[in-house]
Specification:
By secondary structure, the chain is an all-alpha fold. The chain has one helix and no strands. The radius of gyration is 23 Å and the shape is rod-shaped. It starts with a helix and ends with a helix.
Length: 54
């Protein structure tokens, strides 16, 4: 009986950790996409600003 409880707790822990890990990976890719978009926007703004100065 104790052995079954141990395996159940270990299995549940593995599932929870895997779920958290997958969620963090998904958030990371979303943030990377946002960062790339903001960098592209900033480069356009910098280019426009440098064109106005000269």
């Amino acid at each position: 009986m104790d052995e079954n409880l141990f395996y159940f707790v270990v299995g549940a822990s593995v599932i929870i950790v895997a779920g958290i890990w997958i969620k963090l990976l998904m958030d990371n890719t979303r943030q990377e996409k946002l960062i790339k978009r903001y960098i592209a926007d900033l480069s356009i703004l910098k280019k426009n600003r440098s064109n106005r100065v000269h």
